[in-house]
Amino acid sequence: MARTAIVTGGGSGLGREISLGLAHAGYGIVVVDRDESAAHACASSIGEHGLSAQALRADVRVPEDVTGIVAAAQRLGGPHVLVNNAGGWTPQRQYPQAEAAEWAATINLNLIAPMLLSQHVLGPMREQGGGAIINIASSGGIGFEPYGSPEYGAAKAGLIRFTASLAGLASSHGVRMMCVAPDWIGLSRAHAQWERMSAPERSASRPLIPPADVVAVILELLRTGSGGTVVEMWGGDQPIVHSP
Ligand SMILES: NC(=O)c1ccc[n+]([C@@H]2O[C@H](COP(=O)([O-])OP(=O)(O)OC[C@H]3O[C@@H](n4cnc5c(N)ncnc54)[C@H](O)[C@@H]3O)[C@@H](O)[C@H]2O)c1
Questions:
Q1: Of 84, 106, 116, 173, which is most buried, counting CB atoms within 10 Å of its CB?
Q2: Which residues are catalytic?
Q3: Residues near 233 by Cβ (< 8 Å), separated by ≥ 6?
Q4: Which atom of ligand 1 is nearest to the CA of 109?
């Protein structure tokens, strides 16, 4: 039976690229997205390549949905891999202009939800012989300079520290938890934004990271990475690997 991978936020953006990349690497994918049509569209494209995927509408912040995500993967004989990819900035306003409920929602999506889903997959992964979890953080969670979304930066910094803290899951549960922290990725939205930038703004920016490079790092971590590893990705440079 094919190994099963859950990809959250798998319907569009980076999650779609990860879903397709893992499907091509032989995983059966549970494409989880709160946008049902995006999840279905991604699962259909995977199916068109003769590969296996199931769409699941779920919100990773809702505990009942989290239970449903794990159950869906268990019905397929997994989960063997979890990619905690769903994430993003608070729309419109950032801390301190944002109300507490708004910035708390960003921390919930980018930190609490990956913690919750990871906790729910640990038992099933251990029972079926082990597994791997990839947390998608961001370069926004690294560094000491001012940053435009403090709540997003804090949540992603937390996700990085969370991952490194849990290197021991490899021995206690047979689960390698690892993290990728990319800078700006060359998804279609980023390319459109890049086009709108002035020449000086562009030359002051690092090149966009090809999404395929992020997928390649994830696949390499799944093959050979050790639990607690964090990989920084900066446009135009080689990935920086922090192993425990
Ligand atoms: N785009 C970048 O340049 C970049 C850079 C560094 C890190 N990241 C991280 O990569 C991940 C993906 O980013 P993206 O740019 O592809 O995002 P995106 O907004 O383009 O796509 C996110 C997907 O997740 C889904 N989603 C959002 N909230 C959800 C929820 N609560 N439950 C289930 N699904 C949900 C959305 O419907 C969407 O399909 C995020 O964690 C982001 O922080 C992105």
A1: 84
A2: 152
A3: 139, 180, 181, 182, 183, 209, 213, 214, 217, 239, 240
A4: 31
